[in-house]
Amino acid sequence: MEYTGDDGESGCNPGTWIWSNGDNSNYTNWASGYPQDTEGCTEAVIATLSANNGQWQNNIWADSEACFICQVYLPMRIV
């Protein structure tokens, strides 16, 4: 996910996150104390299953390559 820009290219709208395809994100799972540096327009989110119980962090490993956070639609199953 990334911050959405005020004009689509520059600036940011603090606290607003979008998926890489431009869709609004209406789910968050931030670790305690995160997100950090929201005024600086952070553009990356890190989520790991092994650390912080899968909760999200930002502003770490900024220069590292990592996998994507994927949004998946699950079929509804009535039991």
UniProtKB/TrEMBL annotation:
Residue span, C-type lectin domain: 1-58
Protein name (record): C-type lectin domain-containing protein
Native organism: Acrobeloides nanus
